[in-house]
Amino acid sequence: MIRFYFHPTPNPAKVALFLEEAGLPYEAVPVDTSKGEQHSPSFRAINPNGKVPAIIDTEGPGGKEARVFDSTAILIYLAEKTGKFLGKPEDRPELLSWSLFLASGLGPFSGQAVHFQFAAPEGLDYAVNRYRREAERHYQVLNDHLEGRTYIVGDDYTIADISAWGWLDRASRVLKGAEDPLGPYPNLKRLFQTVDARPAVARARAVGKNHTFKTVNDDETKRSLFPSNYPPAA
Question: Which fold has domain 2-84+202-229?
Answer without folding.
Answer: Glutaredoxin (3.40.30)
